[in-house]
Specification:
73% of the residues lie in helices and 0% in strands. The protein is mainly α.
């Protein structure tokens, strides 16, 4: 019988084999580039739609690409509470179909970036 922590590590390793892992910085700069915003703008406290949407998108991209990164870690990166990150991911998840062109564009930026 396997111990639970060992099983979780095996599951995580299997998932990581199937996904290419990108750094938070790489994902962040891809989203900034795609939307034409600066790091300061996305990390700001602004609730303007032109800034909030890319922030939601970044949270979703990291959530989708980094199984080893928690909501609190993303929150610290953006100077936000983890509940804000949970909300961002769920908001963007609901808009995925409408945002398909943006999702594909940011994915391409992430894959091509050199960070």
């Amino acid at each position: 019988m396997q111990h639970y922590p060992q099983v979780f590590e095996e599951i995580k390793a299997t998932a990581m084999d199937k996904k290419k892992t990108y750094s938070l910085k790489r994902c962040f700069h891809a989203v900034c580039s795609w939307y034409g915003l600066t790091a300061e703008e996305i990390k700001s406290t602004s609730r303007e739609q032109r800034i909030a949407l890319p922030r939601h998108h970044f949270c979703w991209v990291v959530y989708r690409n980094r199984i080893d990164v928690s909501y609190p870690m993303i929150g610290r990166y953006l100077n936000r509470d983890h509940t804000s990150i949970v909300h961002s991911v769920s908001v963007f998840e609901g808009m995925k179909e409408a945002m398909k062109i943006h999702i594909e564009g940011v994915d391409e930026f992430i894959h091509k970036s050199k960070l």
